[in-house]
Amino acid sequence: MNNLEIFCICIDNRLLKKVRSTNYTPVGLGSDKFSSDWVTDKEGTNISYKNKFYGEQTFHYWFWKNKLNKIEKNKWIGFCGYRRFWKNQNSNIEKFTQFNEKILQTKDEKWENYEVILGDKIHLNNISWIKIIKYGKIALIRNPKSILKKNRNIRFHFDMFHGNGTLDKAIDLLNQNDREDFKTYVRNNTSYNQGNMFICRSKELMNKYYETIFPWLEECEKIFGFDLKGYGNTRIYGFLIERFMPFWFNKYSKVLEVPIIYHDLNKDDLILKKH
Hints:
Blueprint: E1 4-10, H1 16-21, E2 25-28, E3 39-40, H2 51-54, H3 57-66, E4 76-81, E5 84-86, H4 99-102, E6 116-119, E7 121-123, H5 129-135, H6 137-142, H7 154-162, H8 166-171, H9 176-188, E8 191-193, E9 198-200, H10 203-224, H11 231-234, H12 236-252, E10 255-258, E11 260-262
Helix pairs in contact: 9-12, 10-12
């Protein structure tokens, strides 16, 4: 892929043929049994047993410990999921019929001025009142100013879906270099780069990122544990990184945003969502 490799993370071993059609590297996580055609997080140094709680972060841990130091210098490495893909910047979705023509296959020339590619932002202040009433009553009481759209920040959104005060407790466990900056970020921003996806060409930068997030998550485990109920709480460690990742890369590198295509490989739908 022209000095670019993208790992597509899946939880269903029946998707191998579809992932291969994208020219992405197939990654299998979770309880399914995956053949040797898949890259998995169960070999070498790994934390695959935490996948239920960490989501795709168990693969990032495996990649960090077993693969990163083998990657050639300045090669672009990216990650996506079986429902979210990087959009081909040169494509017209209506014009092309093949899915692999609509998604990113090669690096763009303008990438040379950047270190990291992130997805376009999801805007949280567009959340409906129905969801706020259903999930966010306590969060609204904690932060009455959130009744205004402009104040429905990342912290408010996280409290709604993943437990009131959980994000604040996790932030208190962050290293001193990032703690106050991340606290300011989640309170001052009503959007963040979506998808838990990134593309990066610096092994050193990726290593620094992984050296930051995994010790932090281990500290979080000490207070949240693994006796967690409900999807929004069980996957708490993955959701923490979903908010932290765009903050960290924007703080420590020069970032270019690229649109994300929503396409479930289990279905035939293709959506370029506007947030």
